[in-house]
Amino acid sequence: MTEVERGEIRRHMQERLACLRGRLENADLFPLSCADENELASRVSELAMTLALRKRDSGLFSEITQALRRVEDPEFGLCTRCGEDIPKARLKAHPTTRLCLDCMREMEETQRSARAC
Ligand SMILES: [Zn+2]
What we know:
mainly alpha; Four Helix Bundle (Hemerythrin (Met), subunit A); flat
C-alpha cells in the first residue's frame, strides 16, 4: 500500500468517525411519558430502534477507532490469513476488515458447514 492510499483510507475513516460521532451525539432520546397508549407504544418502538442504531453506531465507532490506530502499521491492508493485499475499495467500504474477500468467503463457508453438523 502506498502512502497516498494509506492517507486516503485514513481520511475516509476520519470522515466516517466524524459522521458517527455526530449521529451518536444528536440521537433524539425523547421523553417517553405520554397519556395516549397508542402514542406511547409507538414512542417505545421508536426508542428501541434508536437504541439499536446507537448500539450499532457505537460498535462501529470503536472498531474504526481501532482500525485508525492500525493504519500506520506496515501490515495494515494485508490479509491476516493469506498475506495478500486487501483491495483499497474493500478497505474503504470496510476499514475494519482484516481479510481479503476470498479468505472471508472461505471462512464463512467453513463456518456454515460447521453449523450444518
Ligand atoms: Zn486472504
